[in-house]
Amino acid sequence: MLSIQTSGLKKLFTSITAVDGLSFEVDEGEVFGLLGPNGAGKTTTIRILACLLTPTGGTATVCGFTVTNDPAKVRQRVGILTENPCLYERLTAFENIDFFAKAYGVASEIERKRNIRKVLEFFELWDRRSDKVAYFSKGMKQKLAMARALVHEPPVLLLDEPTAGLDPKSAKEVRDTIMRLRNEGCTILLSTHRLDDAERLCNNALIVVKGKSIAQGSPEALRKKITGSPVIEIIMQKSDERVTESVGRLLSPAAVKEDGAKLLITVDDPEAITPEIVRTIVVAGGLVLSARVIIPSLEDAYLKLIEEAL
């Protein structure tokens, strides 16, 4: 079942095209990444899906409701974390969440208290519920902002740069929380500049440049599509032409590149073929000092795509 669907989505600001014909689908329960440089249109897309902006063209639906015809129903079904979440630092954690629960339309005091306790316990902030937010760390404030976005129990969460500006420890806490939300079945649209976050968290991703889609797929599919197959690096005690020829016969001469005492071997399934390659080298009289698999990262693929697009 689809939680989010866009088709030809566009947004113009006078003479600037911020979003230019984006089409993508997000399945229920998945983490979908929006990746791209500054000014790519990621934040604008999130604001359209949250009904904070009206699209100029195309369509967008959230949980089956269109953002143009049913904005109130869409808002009930999404929680949003903006890049710079505003919290009332003079209020306690509980008071902050209670204030926004009322704004989201959770009218019943009993229901609000139940929901507030649920989200604060989930984010491990219940014991700090009576503390003023001014004394929270950046990571705690970010988790509180995520709790705020979920207090009305929406099925879809829109996160705009949730780890931006955080130290490594706080960023890890936020990543761990996103993983827990994914495991709970929450659908998450994640806009991020951190490619390692996308690689760890996203089931699928869309790379956007100047408002246009330039690639879409799982992190693994994007890596393979853009940077090619993994490479096995074999370092031997010394170079040996007989070894190179033997490995070439095992695979194909084109898959093997010799660099002194180093062999670089392009393969599709390194886990399956590496033991056979090492055995072939040993039988041919070679002495293997080390073997490792070099797998291009999503960041490698992303940078190559952005460079080509720009």
Structure description:
The protein has 310 residues and is of the alpha/beta class. The protein has two domains: 2-225, Rossmann fold; 231-294, Alpha-Beta Plaits (2-Layer Sandwich). The protein contains eleven helices and 14 strands. The strands form three sheets. A six-stranded mixed β-sheet has the order 6-7-8-3-9-10, with helices on both faces. It has a four-stranded antiparallel β-sheet with strand order 2-1-4-5, with helices on one face. Strands 12-13-11-14 form a four-stranded antiparallel β-sheet, covered by helices on one side. A hairpin with a 2-residue loop joins strand 9 and strand 10 (212-217). The model has no long low-confidence stretch (mean pLDDT 90).
Please sum up the structure shown.
This protein has 310 residues and is of the alpha/beta class.
Task: Going across the biggest sheet, name each strand in turn.
Answer: 6-7-8-3-9-10
Overall outline? elongated
Q: Give the uncertain stretches in residue-range form.
A: none
Percent helix? 25-40%
| Estimated radius of gyration | 24 Å
Q: Output the CATH homologous superfamily of the largest domain.
A: P-loop containing nucleotide triphosphate hydrolases
Number of domains: 2
Q: Which structural category do the helix and sheet elements fall into?
A: alpha/beta
The tally of helices reads 11
Strand content: 25-35%
The biggest beta sheet reads: 6 strands, mixed
Number of strands: 14
> Helix and strand succession?
EEEHEEHEHHHEHEHEEHEHEEHEH
End-to-end Cα distance, whole Å, is 35 Å
Compute the average pLDDT.
90
CATH topology description of the largest domain: Rossmann fold
